[in-house]
Design a protein that fits this description.
By secondary structure, this protein is an alpha+beta fold. The chain is 42% helix and 25% strand. It has 4 domains: 162 residues, Beta-Lactamase (2-Layer Sandwich); 104 residues, Beta-Lactamase (2-Layer Sandwich), CATH 3.30.450.20; 89 residues, Helix Hairpins (Orthogonal Bundle), CATH 1.10.287; 162 residues, 2-Layer Sandwich (Heat Shock Protein 90), CATH 3.30.565. The strands form 5 sheets. Strands 2-1-9-8-7-5-6 form a 7-stranded antiparallel β-sheet, with helices on both faces. It has a 5-stranded antiparallel β-sheet with strand order 11-10-14-13-12, with helices on both faces. A 5-stranded mixed β-sheet has the order 16-18-19-21-20, with helices on one face. Its EC number is 2.7.13.3. It catalyses: ATP + protein L-histidine = ADP + protein N-phospho-L-histidine. InterPro entries: HATPase_C_sf (IPR036890), HATPase_dom (IPR003594), His_kinase_dom (IPR005467), HisK_dim/P_dom (IPR003661), HisK_dim/P_sf (IPR036097), PAS (IPR000014), PAS-assoc_C (IPR000700), PAS-like_dom_sf (IPR035965). Pfam families: HATPase_c (PF02518), HisKA (PF00512), PAS_9 (PF13426).
């Protein structure tokens, strides 16, 4: 069919009154049909019916015919008449020449068709219909067999896809723990599953077509939270948020929502999926735990303040006891009977121990406070000062002390000085009399913590400070008890202590978000490892 023939047909079909000359088409030996603007058949001739293998039925209510027969591309992909029509109309009314398709007849036989699609226009140039002229291409048996295999494969894949879609939609509809919604670009609700009905309380008929902001509190709508979430999802692909939402009956629930933008093939946003989970029970439990934690923290602070005040107030009467005991000992001590002198010495010793216990309690109370500010501190200066304060004991017992170069860190200087002082004091106190005392203080930068302790985050950096001695050591069973209040390493004669020092060390390390661990063996010494975050 040449182009002149196509033009002649199109001109003959449109009169000045715009009436199609259908009688001429019935006389044509070539198969011919006419589609309206929606791609539906409004006319066909007998030649077309013979190729189709059937006469399409007239749907009188709309003056159109049903589809003639299934059509497929050479790859076996199904086409509808709408597809063919749109192909012609998309080209702004330009003819579609050499249009080819495989037609499946009612008896399952297939033929190869070839033809043209010609837009029919009125005087204003508006396409009012499309003329389709086509004929069978002979000698294509081998090609049809190959196409038939494509069609069978396509139908199988199409059926599997249909079943998969049905299962997917069924799954979405049946999910009850999540509200799953489809929104259009403006946020209007397009679908509704059982989970949405359960969580939000609306029936599907009550909510379809409403804006999803209906679930938000008045104050959230006033600050345009729903619109901001849609904007965020449009710009970034996703919006995640938690907050109070409103059910149909007016009650509130704590919802965790994820809004995800949906895109077409050109990456244009065509709508949104919205998934909501009801986390009300979790939210209430977390709030209750947070309330208990705040109350416990308040009570702990009160107890710490009481301990500090009590210890501080006890210092004055104790000072008087010590003063009077020392006065009696200095003035009348030599004249007292031997038993009285013994009792007086015991009283002076007990008052001295009491003074040490009060000082340790005051130190512990101070170590429990987070009010001190962390500052950049040269730890070398602190350790030098601590070693200097123990100079007499170190010199008297010929103690060897080796110290690595320590870093500059943000710490509470007073507390870190107390930490090193307590650990060094313990190492000196529990030294061995069988060998020369040897103490090392080392530091190492690392990213791992002892087994059983999780790092704050992946790749976190820590300084590990290790104080090691070759003293009398301790039983490994006591490792976890050492840092409790009033727990002492040893009870040998001549070794005194309040049992608070290591508890103070642990409190200081916790204040600096760190970890302290102890290791020891009887007669072989002890090691204390302190892990402090680098930043």
């Amino acid at each position: 069919m040449d182009r002149g023939f196509n033009t002649a047909i199109s001109n003959a079909f449109l009169t000045d009154a715009g009436i199609l000359q259908l009688d001429l088409l019935q006389l044509l030996p070539m198969a011919t049909c006419i589609y309206n603007g929606s791609g539906r058949i409004i006319f066909y001739n007998e030649a077309a019916a013979r190729l189709w293998g059937r006469n399409p039925e007239l749907i009188k209510a709309n003056d159109i015919y049903d589809d003639a027969a299934p059509c497929y591309t050479a790859d076996g992909i199904y086409l509808s008449h709408d597809t063919a029509m749109l192909a012609a109309l998309i080209k702004e009314g330009a003819p579609c020449n050499d249009w080819q398709v495989v037609l499946e007849r009612p008896d399952q036989s297939k033929i190869f068709l070839k033809g043209n699609l010609i837009p029919l226009k009125n005087k204003l140039g508006v396409t009012i219909a499309v003329l389709h002229c086509f004929q069978e291409v002979t000698g294509t048996g081998a090609a049809l067999q190959e196409i038939d295999e494509h069609i069978v494969r396509y139908k199988k894949l199409n059926e599997e896809l249909k079943r998969s879609e049905e299962r997917y939609h069924k799954m979405i509809e049946e999910v009850e723990d999540y509200a799953i919604l489809l929104l259009d670009r403006s946020g209007m609700i397009q679908n509704w599953n059982k989970g949405a009905e359960k969580i939000k309380g609306y029936q599907e008929s009550e909510i379809i077509g409403k804006h999803f902001s209906i679930f938000y509190q008045q104050e959230d709508r006033a600050r345009q939270l729903p619109d901001r979430l849609i904007t965020e999802a449009t710009l970034t692909g996703k919006a995640v948020q938690e907050g109070w939402r409103v059910r149909k009956n007016g009650t509130r629930f704590w919802g965790s929502i994820v809004i995800t933008a949906l895109h077409d093939a050109e990456n244009n946003v065509i709508g949104f999926s919205k998934v909501t989970r009801d986390l009300t029970e979790k939210k209430l439990a977390e709030d209750k735990i947070r309330q208990y934690a705040n109350e416990l923290e308040f009570q702990n602070k009160e107890l710490e303040q009481f301990a500090y005040a009590a210890a501080h107030d006890m210092k004055e009467p104790l000072r008087k006891i010590q003063f009077y005991n020392n006065y009696i000992f200095d003035v009348a001590g030599p004249q007292l009977p031997e038993k009285a002198q013994e009792y007086l010495n015991r009283s002076i010793s007990a008052a001295s121990r009491m003074r040490g216990l009060i000082d340790d309690l005051l130190t512990y109370s101070q170590a429990s406070s987070f009010s001190q500010e962390m500052v950049e501190t040269d730890l070398n200066a602190i350790i030098d000062e601590v070693i200097s304060s123990h100079h007499d004991t170190i010199e008297k017992n010929d103690v060897i002390i080796e110290v690595d170069r320590l870093p500059v860190m943000r710490v509470i200087p007073f507390q870190f000085a107390q930490l090193f002082d307590n650990l060094l004091g313990n190492a000196l106190k529990y030294r061995s009399v069988e060998r020369q005392p040897h103490i090392t203080i080392s530091v190492e930068k690392m990213t791992t913590l002892p087994e059983g302790i999780n790092a704050a985050s992946s790749g976190a950096c820590y300084y590990r400070f290790s104080l090691t001695d070759n003293g009398i050591g301790f039983q490994s069973d006591y490792t976890d008890k050492l840092f409790e209040l009033f727990q002492r390493l040893h009870s040998q004669p001549g070794i005194t202590g309040s049992g608070i020092g290591l508890a103070i060390c642990k409190k200081i390390v916790l204040n600096h978000h760190g970890v302290i661990k102890a290791y020891g063996n009887p007669g072989q010494g002890a090691r204390f490892d302190i892990y402090i975050p680098c930043e």
